[in-house]
Specification:
The protein is mainly alpha-helical. Helix content is 61%, strand content 7%. The chain has one domain.
């Protein structure tokens, strides 16, 4: 996209609205507004998603909010569902007691119905924030877009062998099951890595896009974009959470001289890049169940259509 063409396109109005939401939320938070303090996380991340979506549209001429709102709904629903899965892992009350295992929420809304609204609103912003940011990185760093719509022709010999995919799926399944039966604070990396190892090669095996297949073919753009997105969003999650009234803290045994990124131990922050990959793999799997476009194979040549994120 030429610079003058992007300049003529301009930033959509919802980008300015998103930026205004972020600034206003922070101003009211530091002014001591209790309502904004309790709802700060979903409010500020809604503003962030609006702003980044507008930047993506200005850069690419398309975005979830401007050109594919139906897909945005799918991304939000899969985001909510995925994070409740993570909450399931984090809540041994389902198994042994009534304590949160790895992360702990404080000063939540006392009304359980409003609290659920707050949960789901905040959870709905996770996948859009990660994917929009990844798309922006892909465009800004001159990487090819995550959702490149054109068809590629690939040699079948460059497809991941099924034996490797089955092995990764098996390892991922074991990693996903172990924390359910051996509840321990040391097993948090197993959850983040296990679900990625389970869903990503499963997507490849079923003919859908995956980082596993990308790496086997020597493609790094998707992994790089998602990893950078995980780092960027991770820093913002921790920064904005640190000042909020309703917030979370961690019980993570991996310490490096007590150093923290706001509330997150520094070593724990290493989980953000694989977390972004994991979220994308879960989304692709969820999307595949709705019957979107799979990868078709024809004799010795494979036609690849990248799953649309926009």
């Amino acid at each position: 996209m030429k610079t003058d063409e992007r300049a003529r396109r301009g930033l959509p109005a919802h980008g300015y609205a998103g930026l205004a939401v972020i600034v206003a939320a922070e101003a009211l938070l530091f002014a001591g507004n209790d309502t904004v303090g309790h709802w700060f996380t979903p409010i500020v991340w809604t503003g962030y998603v609006l702003f980044v979506d507008a930047l993506v549209f200005r850069r690419e001429g398309r975005s979830l909010m401007m050109t594919n709102r139906a897909e945005l709904l799918v991304v939000c629903v899969s985001s909510i569902a995925a994070w409740w899965l993570f909450e399931f892992y984090n809540s041994p009350r389902f198994w042994k007691n009534d304590l949160e295992l790895w992360w702990h929420y404080h000063n939540l809304e006392p009304n359980p119905y409003l609290r659920r609204v707050g949960y789901d609103w905040a959870f709905a912003t996770i996948f859009p924030a990660l994917f929009e940011t990844a798309e922006l990185f892909a465009a800004t760093l001159r990487l090819k877009p995550l959702d490149e719509p054109r068809v590629r022709v690939e040699s079948a010999s460059r497809r991941p062998p099924k034996s490797l995919l089955y092995l990764l799926i098996f390892v991922g399944a074991i990693c996903a099951l172990v924390p359910l039966f051996a509840v321990n604070v040391w097993l948090v990396p197993v959850v983040w890595l296990g679900l990625a190892l389970l869903f990503d090669p499963l997507n490849a095996l079923r003919g859908w896009q995956s980082v596993t297949a990308d790496l086997f073919r020597g493609r790094l753009r998707r992994l790089a974009s998602l990893a950078l997105s995980g780092v960027a969003c991770g820093v913002l999650w921790e920064f904005w959470n640190y000042w909020a009234v309703s917030r979370w803290t961690y019980t993570v045994p991996y310490q490096l001289f007590g150093l923290k990124l706001f509330e997150m131990p520094v070593l724990g922050s290493l989980g953000y890049p694989p977390f972004a990959v994991e979220c994308w793999a879960i989304y692709v799997f969820f999307r595949s169940l709705l019957g979107a476009r799979p990868v078709g194979a024809s004799s010795s040549r494979e036609r690849e259509i990248v799953v649309d994120l926009q």
